[in-house]
Amino acid sequence: MEHIFLNSINILGLILCLGAFFIKDSFWLKISTIVGMSILFTANTFGGFPTGILSNISLVLINAFCLFKLFTYHLEQ
Question: What is the mean pLDDT of the chain?
C-alpha cells in the first residue's frame, strides 16, 4: 500500500513538471515547476525508487534550467 501512495505522489510531480512545458503564463509556470520539482525531490529522496530515478532527476534538472533562464530573463529587463 505504501508503494502505491509513493508512486502516485511521484506521478503527480512528474505530471506537474511535464505540464509546465505547456504553460504560457510565467506565474503559473514558476508555481508548477517549483511544486513539481519539490515533489519529485522529496519523493526520490525519501522513497528510494530504483526505477525511474534517472528520468525524474533529468526532468528536475531540465525544469531547473528553464526556471533559471526565466528568472535571469526577467532580471535583465
Answer: 77
pLDDT digits over 1-36, tens only? 667 777 787 788 878 877 877 888 888 888 888 888
Full-model pTM: 0.59
> Could you give the CA distance from residue 70 to residue 6 in angstroms, rounded to a whole number?
30
- C-beta atoms surrounding 15 within 10 Å: 13
Q: Using DSSP, state whether 1 is helix, strand or coil.
A: coil
Among residues 8, 74, 48, 6, the alpha carbon closest in space to that of 29 is found at 74
The Cα-based distances of 55 to 15, 34, 39, 42, 59 in angstroms read: 13, 17, 14, 15, 6
CA distances from 10 to 25, 69, 72, 77 (A): 24, 25, 29, 36
